[in-house]
């Protein structure tokens, strides 16, 4: 078999770039046996780029890296609401998008994507501190201040720096499947899955003991997905009423308890489809959905595909290079 071409990732460093935002995609997609990606860090030109937080960058690639890339990350940068990036940068982003590259912004990098016009009429997010500024500067963008990240297909945006990890893992799940994403999360010592719809910032004080109980309840539920798992059982474990549990759970996670349980079941089903030979009927029972028909219904609704199509996408021949114990 001919070797598979590495997916190409460009990380575009703009003036005032935040170091964590730059480092996240560079580290997540770094080339290694378990990751079929090649990363190039670039800037408006080869050479030094003044960064934020007292750091500077020396980039070996200019905007030509955007002509090469399959995915272009735009890390967050300081003072995004003061002026747009240089015209040459915006033109390079537009050309990359027209060529079919995906564009992904971390935090305030969304301002650069918005300045191209590619976010007009689309949902997008950014760090909660800048959501109003983004909406005011680019009124055609449908800014969602309550989510961790937004996937609009050709363009993706995320909230603060840590949600950049969630966005990168989401891209990995889309490209390579749940097993590869989980492996990367373990390497990063990061949460393997936080949905894009999870709240990025809640402007209230959550009593710590309540937060601990809900975290324990979510962990408890993950070990019982194969059986009945209704709102009453979850609330009973959390030691609150079903009404209180439902309301507080939605505030904390951005989704309802039953939506969260269903998504957890589907994600376990995805990993079983990738890593086992169990039938769809067996997997449906394993994840508490009862029948293959029920699994197919929810799989299609959440992921837009069928279990069979998903399994064919991640056949063993496609997984050979992905050593789950690789570095």
Quick structural gist:
This protein has 15 helices and ten strands. The chain has 327 residues and is an alpha/beta fold.
**Coarse morphology:** globular
- Reading the helices and strands in chain order gives EHEEEHEHEHEHEEEHHHHHHHHHH
The fourth-level CATH homologous superfamily of the largest domain is Class I glutamine amidotransferase (GATase) domain
* CATH uppermost class of the largest domain: Alpha Beta
Low-confidence stretches: 198-211, 316-327
Mean pLDDT over all positions: 85
CATH fold description of the largest domain: Rossmann fold
Rg, Cα atoms, Å: 21 Å
Helicity level, as a percent range?
A: 40-55%
Total count of strands: 10
Q: In words, what does this structure look like?
A:
This protein has 327 residues and is of the alpha/beta class. The protein folds into 2 domains: 7-188, Rossmann fold, CATH 3.40.50; 205-318, Arc Repressor Mutant, subunit A (Orthogonal Bundle). 47% of the residues lie in helices and 12% in strands. The chain has 15 helices and 10 strands. The protein has helices at residues 19-28, 64-68, 87-99, 109-116, 131-137, 161-176, 178-188, 208-222, 231-238, 242-253, 257-275, 280-286, 292-303, 307-313, 316-319; strands at residues 7-12, 37-42, 47-50, 56-59, 71-74, 102-105, 123-124, 142-143, 149-151, 155-158. It has a 6-stranded mixed beta sheet, with helices on both faces. Strands 3-4 form a two-stranded antiparallel ribbon. Strand 5 (71-74), helix 3 (87-99) and strand 6 (102-105) form a beta-alpha-beta unit. Helix 6 (161-176) packs antiparallel against helix 7. The longest helix has 19 residues, at 257-275. It starts with 6 loop residues before the first strand and ends in an 8-residue tail after the last helix. Mean pLDDT is 85; it is low at 198-211 and 316-327.
